[in-house]
Design goal:
This protein has about 525 residues and is α+β, with helices and mostly antiparallel strands. Helix content is about 30%, strand content about 25%. It has three domains: about 160 residues, D-Maltodextrin-Binding Protein, domain 2; about 120 residues, Dipeptide-binding Protein, Domain 1 (Dipeptide-binding Protein, domain 1, Alpha-Beta Complex), CATH 3.90.76.10; about 220 residues, Dipeptide-binding Protein, domain 3, CATH 3.10.105. The strands form five sheets. Strands 1, 2, 9, 10, 11, 12, 13, 14, 15, 16, 17 and 18 form a twelve-stranded mixed beta sheet that branches. A hairpin with a 4-residue loop joins β5 and β6. α16 packs parallel to α19. The longest helix has 18 residues. The protein starts with a strand and ends with a strand. The N terminus is likely disordered.
């Protein structure tokens, strides 16, 4: 039975948008985006760990080095103009850019870099592990990151390739914040965290004007941005979880970009005058996972059978057409070290035999948490139908993105249909998420799908994940990640099914929108209206 437990508020917002009268064409200097933004839990870069909050941080903050809107495949200077690596002494020396101003007008200082990273480590929110894997702790951060004048010196522990360290420092939690402004708004020792969830304090091309959860996100151009002020004076992101409503808004000219259309809605736009579809390969992989706190889901035979209970080609060729492709490994296709083998196909008879041979007691009744937005509910219904063929009955529990993700982080789900994108562009990012767990205790929270599903990988797999991280030979290192992907395909309580392809519908006069492989590379800075 399909059970939808989503919030009434989302439905009301969607209905209101769908019934609202047609608006005039959007202003020439304002970009209006229709998008589902209810996955946002927090917008402070020290804690932001959702896809949409990643887009927000990418447009309001900068890191010392980053994959920029001009070319999302090249690590480029940002707040640092140059850097040098001393691998023998495990240090990176950065030179800060002159003349950079925060949204407040305050100048960028070395103290802001040290303070920003210290703040991430001290707050210890979900993404803090990205920085702490460099050996940084609340006790040693003032020794590991030091500054003098416009120079910042970073020290790290671990036998890492220099590219790994730089990729970490290009990641979202390494964003630099205006520490003078942030700490002026500290309340009860929160280091400005509550204030940062309602305000921005970055150097990025846009600054926050308004944020109301699951309603609206409005950004204003930062006139003093060091790479030049954006052409758009404002970016308005309207929450709208309904693709059909987004399509109506786009055709009517009420919005410039619609980001959550399903394949049928995209197909229906191909003949619409003034509208075009842009396609962007994505790094997100989509999977179903099984919480190992649930006794009925702990038998590896259940995981093995599940791999043959997904109608991969059926979904990819219909409800996901043009928006996902079959991919069955944790590192996305298109990046070095990705495993592109797809050894599993829909075979319910084989699944039933696996369960019978293992003596698994059937039926198994399990709840499946899913985001109540396109295309996740449709995917869940397909899984519900195909899993039932082998006696695994899925009750679909739908909620907002924030509700589902919060439940997942608390390990209170049973089965979960979700997606995962790398935290930084290095295969260790996903290997740590899918093939490593340092401590499975309830009080040892880790931002990994292993911990969140209460799965402790075999000791050998944990060791291989860490060995790959420290391997200095680039080719050998990539080979180690290929082996890890094969092992997780065979031994983990996950069924990785698809890799995302983003289809974005926009008005013909929109130029310069950048949608990179992850949410951290969605940029509005170069957008113009012709």
């Amino acid at each position: 039975m399909f059970t939808l437990r989503s919030t009434l508020a989302s439905a009301c917002i969607a209905a209101t948008l769908a019934m609202s009268p047609s608006l005039a064409e959007t202003p020439s200097d304002v970009l209006v985006v229709a998008q589902n933004i209810d996955d946002i839990v927090t917008i402070d870069p020290a804690s932001a760990y959702e896809f949409t909050s990643g887009e927000y941080v990418a447009n309001t903050y900068d890191t010392l080095v980053r994959y920029d809107a001009m070319d999302t495949t090249v690590l480029a200077p940002a707040l640092a103009t140059e850097w040098s690596v001393d691998a023998a002494n495990k240090t990176v020396a950065f030179t800060l850019r002159d003349g950079v101003k925060f949204h407040s007008g305050n100048p960028l200082r070395g103290a802001d870099v040290v303070g920003s990273w210290t703040r991430v480590v001290a707050l210890d929110k979900a993404p803090s592990f990205i920085l702490t894997q460099l050996g940084w702790t609340a006790d040693n951060i003032d020794e590991m990151v030091t500054t003098e004048g416009n120079a910042v010196t970073v020290r790290y522990e671990g036998d890492f390739a220099p590219s790994f360290v730089l990729n970490v420092l290009a990641a979202r939690p390494a964003s630099i914040v205006d520490m003078e402004t942030v700490m002026a708004n500290e309340v009860d020792g929160d280091m400005g965290h509550a204030w940062m969830n309602k305000n921005s304090a970055g150097t990025g091309p846009f600054k926050l004007v308004t944020y109301r959860p699951a309603e609206i996100l409005t950004l204003e151009a930062h006139a003093d941005y060091y790479q030049g002020a954006p052409s758009m004076s404002r970016v308005v992101v309207q929450h709208n979880p309904e693709g059909a409503s987004q399509r109506l808004q786009l055709v009517a000219g009420d919005v410039d970009i619609a980001k959550n259309l399903d394949p049928n809605q995209v197909a229906g736009l191909t003949d619409e005058e003034g509208v075009r579809i842009e396609t962007y390969p994505q790094a997100a992989v989509h999977w179903i996972s099984f919480n190992q706190k649930v006794d009925a889901l702990t038998d590896p035979a259940v995981w093995a059978a599940a791999r043959y209970l997904v109608d991969y080609e059926g979904m990819a060729g219909s409800l996901l057409d043009g928006q996902m492709k079959v991919h069955q490994a944790f590192w996305p296709d298109g990046f070095p070290g990705a495993l592109t083998d797809t050894p599993f196909s829909y075979d319910p008879e084989k699944a039933k035999q696996i369960l019978a041979d293992a003596g698994v007691q059937l039926p198994i009744n399990v709840t499946l948490d899913v985001i109540s937005a396109t295309p996740f509910v449709d995917m869940a219904q397909s899984l519900q139908s195909s899993f039932a063929q082998a006696g695994i009955n899925l009750e679909i529990v739908a909620g907002t993105g924030a509700q589902v993700i919060t439940k997942y982080r608390a390990r209170t789900h049973e089965a979960m249909l979700l997606y995962w994108g790398p935290d930084f562009m290095d295969p260790h990012s996903n290997a740590k998420a899918f093939a490593f767990n340092a401590d499975n205790s309830d009080d040892k929270y880790a931002s990994t799908t292993t911990w969140r599903n209460a799965w402790m990988p075999p000791e050998e797999m944990n060791a291989k994940a860490m060995a790959a991280l420290g391997e200095q030979d680039p080719d050998k290192r990539l080979g180690m990640y290929l082996d890890l992907q094969r092992e997780t395909q065979a031994e983990a309580p996950f069924v990785i099914m698809f890799q995302a392809i983003k289809q974005v519908a926009m008005r013909d006069n929109i130029k310069g929108f950048v949608n990179g492989a992850t949410s951290d590379y969605v940029f509005y800075r170069l957008v113009e209206k012709n």
